Amino acid sequence: MRYSPKTYVSLLPLTLGVMLACSFDTSASNSIGLLCAFGSALVFVSSNIFFKKIMPSNTTQHASSHKLDKLNLLFYSSGMAFLLMIPIWATTDLPALLAAASDPEHVAHPAHGHAAPHSARAYLFANGAVHFAQNIIAFVLLARVSPVTYSIASLVKRVAVICAAVVWFAQPVHPVQAFGIALTFVGLW
Protein backbone atom coordinates (compact mmCIF):
# COMPACT_ATOMS: atom_id res chain seq x y z
CA MET A 1 0.00 0.00 0.00
CA ARG A 2 1.42 3.38 -1.01
CA TYR A 3 0.75 6.66 0.76
CA SER A 4 1.23 10.18 -0.40
CA PRO A 5 4.22 12.24 0.76
CA LYS A 6 1.76 14.40 2.74
CA THR A 7 0.91 11.38 4.87
CA TYR A 8 4.56 10.74 5.73
CA VAL A 9 5.19 14.42 6.42
CA SER A 10 2.16 14.60 8.72
CA LEU A 11 3.48 11.63 10.71
CA LEU A 12 6.67 13.53 11.61
CA PRO A 13 5.04 16.10 13.94
CA LEU A 14 2.94 13.34 15.48
CA THR A 15 5.94 11.19 16.27
CA LEU A 16 8.13 14.08 17.37
CA GLY A 17 5.29 15.51 19.48
CA VAL A 18 4.78 12.27 21.40
CA MET A 19 8.54 11.94 21.91
CA LEU A 20 8.74 15.47 23.32
CA ALA A 21 5.63 14.98 25.47
CA CYS A 22 7.25 11.95 27.09
CA SER A 23 10.66 13.58 27.58
CA PHE A 24 12.46 15.10 30.57
CA ASP A 25 12.47 12.13 32.94
CA THR A 26 15.47 10.07 31.95
CA SER A 27 16.01 7.74 34.89
CA ALA A 28 17.11 4.16 34.20
CA SER A 29 13.61 2.78 34.78
CA ASN A 30 12.19 5.25 32.26
CA SER A 31 14.83 4.23 29.71
CA ILE A 32 13.68 0.63 30.04
CA GLY A 33 10.08 1.82 29.82
CA LEU A 34 10.92 3.81 26.70
CA LEU A 35 12.50 0.76 25.06
CA CYS A 36 9.43 -1.30 25.99
CA ALA A 37 7.16 1.40 24.57
CA PHE A 38 9.12 1.42 21.30
CA GLY A 39 8.91 -2.37 21.16
CA SER A 40 5.19 -2.24 21.89
CA ALA A 41 4.62 0.36 19.18
CA LEU A 42 6.60 -1.71 16.69
CA VAL A 43 4.57 -4.83 17.49
CA PHE A 44 1.31 -2.83 17.40
CA VAL A 45 1.98 -1.29 13.99
CA SER A 46 3.31 -4.57 12.57
CA SER A 47 0.23 -6.44 13.78
CA ASN A 48 -2.04 -3.77 12.29
CA ILE A 49 -0.38 -4.15 8.90
CA PHE A 50 -0.36 -7.96 9.15
CA PHE A 51 -4.02 -8.10 10.23
CA LYS A 52 -4.98 -5.73 7.44
CA LYS A 53 -3.33 -8.06 4.92
CA ILE A 54 -5.09 -11.22 6.13
CA MET A 55 -8.40 -9.71 7.30
CA PRO A 56 -11.35 -9.78 4.94
CA SER A 57 -12.81 -6.43 3.96
CA ASN A 58 -16.35 -5.68 2.92
CA THR A 59 -15.26 -4.77 -0.63
CA THR A 60 -13.20 -7.86 -1.41
CA GLN A 61 -15.21 -11.00 -0.71
CA HIS A 62 -13.75 -13.57 -3.10
CA ALA A 63 -14.44 -17.28 -2.76
CA SER A 64 -10.83 -18.09 -3.63
CA SER A 65 -9.50 -15.84 -0.89
CA HIS A 66 -8.26 -17.68 2.23
CA LYS A 67 -8.58 -14.82 4.69
CA LEU A 68 -9.60 -15.40 8.28
CA ASP A 69 -12.71 -13.88 9.79
CA LYS A 70 -12.36 -11.52 12.77
CA LEU A 71 -13.17 -14.05 15.50
CA ASN A 72 -10.75 -16.67 14.19
CA LEU A 73 -8.09 -14.00 13.82
CA LEU A 74 -8.66 -12.91 17.42
CA PHE A 75 -8.56 -16.54 18.58
CA TYR A 76 -5.26 -17.31 16.87
CA SER A 77 -3.55 -14.06 17.83
CA SER A 78 -4.68 -14.41 21.46
CA GLY A 79 -3.53 -18.03 21.53
CA MET A 80 -0.11 -17.08 20.17
CA ALA A 81 0.17 -14.23 22.69
CA PHE A 82 -0.76 -16.62 25.51
CA LEU A 83 1.91 -19.12 24.45
CA LEU A 84 4.55 -16.41 24.12
CA MET A 85 3.73 -15.03 27.57
CA ILE A 86 4.01 -18.36 29.42
CA PRO A 87 7.84 -18.21 29.79
CA ILE A 88 7.68 -14.63 31.08
CA TRP A 89 4.92 -15.53 33.53
CA ALA A 90 6.80 -18.63 34.67
CA THR A 91 9.90 -16.61 35.53
CA THR A 92 8.22 -13.60 37.15
CA ASP A 93 4.83 -14.44 38.68
CA LEU A 94 4.92 -18.21 39.21
CA PRO A 95 7.64 -18.08 41.92
CA ALA A 96 5.61 -15.48 43.85
CA LEU A 97 2.45 -17.59 43.57
CA LEU A 98 4.27 -20.71 44.75
CA ALA A 99 5.78 -18.78 47.67
CA ALA A 100 2.33 -17.44 48.60
CA ALA A 101 0.82 -20.93 48.42
CA SER A 102 3.42 -22.43 50.74
CA ASP A 103 3.52 -19.44 53.13
CA PRO A 104 0.34 -17.30 53.21
CA GLU A 105 2.18 -14.69 55.30
CA HIS A 106 4.52 -14.14 52.33
CA VAL A 107 1.95 -11.88 50.67
CA ALA A 108 1.86 -8.49 52.37
CA HIS A 109 -1.49 -6.74 52.57
CA PRO A 110 -1.78 -3.03 53.29
CA ALA A 111 -2.77 -2.36 56.89
CA HIS A 112 -5.02 0.57 56.01
CA GLY A 113 -6.60 -0.71 52.80
CA HIS A 114 -10.28 -0.91 52.05
CA ALA A 115 -12.39 -3.90 51.13
CA ALA A 116 -12.88 -4.50 47.42
CA PRO A 117 -16.54 -4.12 46.38
CA HIS A 118 -16.27 -7.16 44.06
CA SER A 119 -14.35 -10.41 44.00
CA ALA A 120 -11.20 -10.98 41.97
CA ARG A 121 -13.23 -13.26 39.65
CA ALA A 122 -15.64 -10.42 38.90
CA TYR A 123 -12.74 -8.08 38.09
CA LEU A 124 -11.09 -10.73 35.88
CA PHE A 125 -14.36 -11.36 34.04
CA ALA A 126 -14.97 -7.63 33.52
CA ASN A 127 -11.38 -7.12 32.33
CA GLY A 128 -11.64 -10.04 29.90
CA ALA A 129 -15.02 -8.93 28.55
CA VAL A 130 -13.90 -5.35 27.99
CA HIS A 131 -10.61 -6.48 26.41
CA PHE A 132 -12.47 -8.87 24.09
CA ALA A 133 -14.88 -6.09 23.06
CA GLN A 134 -11.97 -3.71 22.47
CA ASN A 135 -10.28 -6.27 20.21
CA ILE A 136 -13.43 -6.93 18.21
CA ILE A 137 -13.98 -3.20 17.76
CA ALA A 138 -10.33 -2.80 16.74
CA PHE A 139 -10.66 -5.55 14.11
CA VAL A 140 -13.89 -4.07 12.75
CA LEU A 141 -12.27 -0.64 12.49
CA LEU A 142 -9.07 -2.01 11.00
CA ALA A 143 -11.08 -3.83 8.32
CA ARG A 144 -12.63 -0.49 7.30
CA VAL A 145 -9.68 1.90 7.48
CA SER A 146 -6.00 1.84 6.60
CA PRO A 147 -3.38 0.83 9.17
CA VAL A 148 -2.05 4.41 9.17
CA THR A 149 -5.47 5.84 10.02
CA TYR A 150 -5.92 3.27 12.78
CA SER A 151 -2.45 3.99 14.20
CA ILE A 152 -3.16 7.73 14.20
CA ALA A 153 -6.41 7.11 16.06
CA SER A 154 -4.42 5.08 18.59
CA LEU A 155 -1.97 7.96 18.87
CA VAL A 156 -4.86 10.28 19.75
CA LYS A 157 -5.70 7.88 22.57
CA ARG A 158 -2.11 7.95 23.83
CA VAL A 159 -2.01 11.74 23.83
CA ALA A 160 -5.33 11.80 25.70
CA VAL A 161 -3.89 9.39 28.29
CA ILE A 162 -0.78 11.57 28.70
CA CYS A 163 -2.90 14.71 29.15
CA ALA A 164 -5.25 12.96 31.60
CA ALA A 165 -2.29 11.66 33.61
CA VAL A 166 -0.79 15.15 33.78
CA VAL A 167 -4.09 16.55 35.09
CA TRP A 168 -4.88 13.61 37.41
CA PHE A 169 -1.46 13.51 39.09
CA ALA A 170 -1.05 17.31 38.99
CA GLN A 171 2.32 16.81 37.36
CA PRO A 172 4.15 19.94 36.30
CA VAL A 173 4.61 20.16 32.54
CA HIS A 174 7.92 21.37 31.14
CA PRO A 175 7.57 23.83 28.25
CA VAL A 176 9.18 21.30 25.89
CA GLN A 177 6.57 18.71 26.91
CA ALA A 178 3.78 21.24 26.34
CA PHE A 179 5.28 22.00 22.93
CA GLY A 180 5.30 18.26 22.19
CA ILE A 181 1.63 17.92 23.08
CA ALA A 182 0.77 20.95 20.93
CA LEU A 183 2.89 19.57 18.08
CA THR A 184 1.00 16.29 18.26
CA PHE A 185 -2.33 18.09 17.92
CA VAL A 186 -0.94 20.08 14.96
CA GLY A 187 0.14 16.82 13.34
CA LEU A 188 -3.30 15.33 13.93
CA TRP A 189 -4.93 18.32 12.31
Give an account of the 3D structure:
By secondary structure, the protein is mainly alpha-helical. 72% of the residues lie in helices and 0% in strands. The chain has 7 helices and no strands. The chain has helices at 5-21, 28-54, 70-92, 94-102, 120-144, 147-168, 175-188. Helix 1 (5-21) packs parallel to helix 6 (147-168) and helix 1 (5-21) runs antiparallel to helix 7. The protein is globular. It starts with a helix and ends with a helix. The mean pLDDT is 75.
In brief:
The protein is an all-alpha fold and 189 residues long. The chain has seven helices and no strands.
Pick out its properties:
single chain, 72% helix, mainly alpha, 189 residues
Helix and strand arrangement:
Layout: H1 5-21, H2 28-54, H3 70-92, H4 94-102, H5 120-144, H6 147-168, H7 175-188
Helix pairs in contact: 1-6, 1-7, 2-6, 6-7
Distance between the termini: 23 Å
Q: Strand fraction band? A: under 5%
Gross morphology is globular
Low-confidence stretches: none
For the largest beta-sheet, the strand count, sense and barrel status come to:
none
What structural class results from the helix and strand content?
A: mainly alpha
How many β-strands, per DSSP?
A: 0
Strand and helix order: HHHHHHH
Number of helices: 7
Report helical residue fraction: over 70%
Mean pLDDT: 75
Radius of gyration (Å): 21 Å
